[in-house]
Amino acid sequence: MFNPSPLPVASRAELVAALEHADAPSLALTLAHLTGDPSVLPALGGGGSWLTTPQGGIPPRERARLRSLAAEVLAPGGAAERAGDALPEPGLLRALTRWALGEDTTALLPMIAEDLAGARTDPKRPRWRRQPGSRLSVAIVGAGMSGLLAAHRLAQAEVPFEIYEMGEDVGGTWQHNDYPGCRTDVPSQLYHYSFAARTDWPDHFCEREVVQGYFRDFAKEFRLVEHIRFRTEVTEAAWDEEEALWRLRMRTPEGEREARAAVLVCATGQLCRPSFPAIPGRDSFAGLSLHSARWEPGTDLTGRRVALIGTGASAAQIVPAIAGRTARLSVFQRTAPWLRPTPHYRAPVPEAERWLLEHVPFYREWQRFWLFAPGIGERGVLDGWIVDPGHPPTERAVSARNEALRAALLASMTAQVADDPELLARVVPDYPVGAKRVLRDDGSWLRTLRRPDVRLVTERISGIAPDAVLTADGERHEVDAIVWATGFRASEFMAPMRITGRGGTELSESWNGDARAYLGLTVPGFPNFFLLYGPNTNLAGQGGSIFYFSECGTTYLLDALRVLQESGARSAEVRGGIHDHYNAWVDQGNALRPWGFSGTTSWLRNAHGRSAQNWPYSAAEYWRLTRGFNPEEYLIR
Ligand code: N01
């Protein structure tokens, strides 16, 4: 099902027709690879702005040249046939990746080569196996993206494991986020496990059902389902020092259960529990009340007067999907979102492009790489996010590059509502680009806000009455239903689970609302305990995918288990100094990013004002830090 091998090119006519739909940078990289000649790469345009330049800014004339060359290279007897199945040799790989990233990639080559080879050889798989008599066993909490991945890697290493999942299905956040219009905002060509690619994504950014189906297929294909205990909520986990294992208590429909395992992996992520704002009178509302992350399937809003609270990523998907069905829709905005032009956001992948993905050797890999490229190094997304004290940073922009991004996004928004300056003034954010998640925009957000049956309310909400949302200007907005698109309790990692480590220390008490971990993975005082998608492992921009970070974390986890087994020790616990030093460095980075610098509200900062969510550096940096477990950083007992 995953990673189908490229099929032989069928006919020249088919090829020429399909090439019309090729993504120019991905095709250029493919051709340079297959011919071994980096000189076929055209100049990139658009000043390198990853955010706003489609097709890498390659002009139409150059695109036509690439298509003609492709027809030759991919013809029977052409260079593609001679290229074989190998990745480019290091010199060529350096030239290709340097072109895409705009920086020297010498130090990044192992990471890039590993990802490029992912779908063919899965180089990240564990190379060791559990030995007979080993005491290794693992309890995983959560059957979402990270939990399934950890389970698969453990199965490869023949380490016994069980997954405890409070829901009825796999997919984590995708299981619960079943609201109208739900789809990824990371391209599907990137939003998957590197070793389990698909060529047949129906859309560039797939709908929730497709993503959920991917996780179901994955769990089935790799026989993980039989290890999952559904409807099982872990309520407590306590480290038993004498036995050197974790004791778990859980709630199931059949009653309380207990389990034990040498290692505990919490893969509950950051976007698990819905957040409801503390608005006076919230519980008094007598109509239908729905949260985006706990949508009731089959809910019909047709003909109802609806208030939707929030203007984040979830709202941006729900609002266009329900407007027109509702009798009236009032959208309550506290802070406006920045919008990133993505004209193909809701578009299907044309049949012809799918044909290329299936038939052209390495096109799929290079497309994934091209989509990932802005997040890999220092010159992509990060370049626009770094606060430049010399600029000097303000709530408008934090650097000249960030100011340029602002100008580009502002121009795109202005073009959409140029004839309505009053609306424009209300939808343009008053904080730097990057301080909150930048939303994908195919025009539908602002178009929907302009509908006669939709109203954007920017007055502060002062309360909720049984039949209305009340605003500070004294207006009653009478409604039949409220949709809370108000996000997640992202700072409360793993809540309300009670996790007790060495000496009876309780994790959420010791964190006190300010979660920290070494590499987002391990915590002092909590031996044999690993988090996946833990503190400071969230991605800042749209230049990568959280799948990548989970893969890095899982590689580290498996390597830690290998070291434990080989050393004959019973536990590993990160040293406090290592943890503290690392977190100081992460905080330093986050303080110099828009989400750390800006005073705007967002889930990217906790109640202490610290960003416990985002990773402030490059994906390559996280890869470097997590590619191997260093026992010297741990108390190994
Ligand atoms: O939640 P959010 P989300 N009065 O926290 C507003 C991922 N995701 O569910 O900005 C009025 O971003 C709040 O206002 P403000 C993605 O990582 C991915 O939309 O704090 N408004 C904000 O507008 C995303 O970043 C996909 O001033 C109030 C909104 O509620 C993350 O999930 C799709 C308020 C909450 O926005 C969270 O996104 C969806 C109040 N009292 C989500 N309190 C994909 O496509 C809060 N708000 C993969």
Structure commentary:
Pfam families: FMO-like. InterPro entries: FAD-bind_Monooxygenase_sf, FAD/NAD-bd_sf, Flavin_mOase-like. One of its GO terms (molecular function) is oxidoreductase activity. Keywords: FAD, Flavoprotein, Oxidoreductase. By secondary structure, the protein is of the alpha/beta class. α1 (12-19) packs across α11 (351-359). It starts with 11 loop residues before the first helix and ends with a strand. Helix content is 34%, strand content 14%. It has 21 helices and 21 strands. The structure holds 3-acetylpyridine adenine dinucleotide. 3-acetylpyridine adenine dinucleotide is lined by residues 184-185, 271, 277, 279, 292, 309-315, 332, 334-335, 437, 461, 485-488, 601-603. Residues 184-185, 271, 277, 279, 292, 309-315, 332, 334-335, 437, 461, 485-488, 601-603 line the site of 3-acetylpyridine adenine dinucleotide (N01).
